[in-house]
Specification:
alpha/beta; four-stranded mixed sheet; about 250 residues; 11 strands; seven-stranded mixed sheet; single chain; Secreted protein
Length: about 250
């Protein structure tokens, strides 16, 4: 074998080894990324989860508001990627307690029974105003003494939370907003920032974020601002009445 052929053989072998090593490294990184995602969402391969939404009150049939349906589709993609099996359930259907399987609860806490129950028991520091007889103030959040009132189409708020309680330790994710467009915005924020949220709060950590959706009448769910991490205030016992309005 002459020197040229030898060099070509060595180069080809080195290329094959490099390709195999690169593929193995990428496969290992992909498995680790998937494992972190499964841990954050509480969705090991083959597990079950439930997506809970409310009915569209404007429809005589069992239907889901458009933005809520799109939010559920975004969550379904995450569930599928984790190799889990989803179930969609209406809010007024009797469901088991939380912790046994991961739950995604999406909706308006003034109309969504299960979401309202989760907010009351897991986020006692959050008050949700049901509105007066004319509907004024409906959906206003009061957290840590500050009220967050919506201006429909201009400024709207939504709570995005990951909480753990009950037996089994599986998390409950809440997207509790003032309008359906905010629910979709919160789910987008969760899906797009899942790696950063897991790093910041830990794969098993709890958090409650207050997000603001800006000018939804023009931009839909696309313009979202993080107002504050309200985990401490939201999980603390409810404060006495009396609050100041958000600026």
């Amino acid at each position: 074998m002459d020197d040229t052929l030898l060099l070509l053989t060595v180069a080809a072998a080195a290329l094959v080894v490099g390709l195999v090593a690169g593929w193995a490294g990428q496969a290992t990184a992909a498995r680790r990324k998937l494992a972190r995602e499964q841990s954050f969402f509480g969705l090991p391969g083959g597990s079950e989860c439930v997506l809970v939404t409310h009915r569209d009150s404007s429809s005589p049939h069992w239907s889901i508001p458009r933005h809520d349906a799109l939010a559920l589709l975004g969550l379904a993609a995450v569930v599928e990627n984790c190799g889990a099996h989803p179930e969609v359930a209406p809010h007024d259907t009797g469901l088991q307690g939380f912790g046994a399987r991961t739950e995604f609860c999406v909706g308006d806490p003034t109309a969504h029974r299960r979401l309202a129950a989760h907010v009351a028991s897991l986020l006692p520091g959050v008050a949700v105003h049901p509105g007066d007889e004319s509907g004024a103030g409906r959906g206003t959040f009061t957290i840590g003494g500050t009220a967050y009132r919506m201006e429909p189409g201009a400024v709207e708020y939504v709570l995005l939370a990951r909480l753990t309680a009950g037996e089994g330790g599986r998390p409950v994710f809440l997207a509790a907003g003032q309008r359906p467009v905010t629910h979709r915005a919160a789910v987008r924020h969760l899906v797009r920032n899942r790696a950063r949220l897991a790093r910041r709060h830990g794969a098993d950590g709890q958090f409650c974020l207050l997000l603001k959706v800006v000018n939804s009448q023009a931009y839909g769910p696309d313009v979202v601002e993080l107002v504050a991490d309200v985990t401490k205030a939201a999980t603390a016992p409810a404060e006495p009445k009396g609050h100041r309005a958000a600026v």
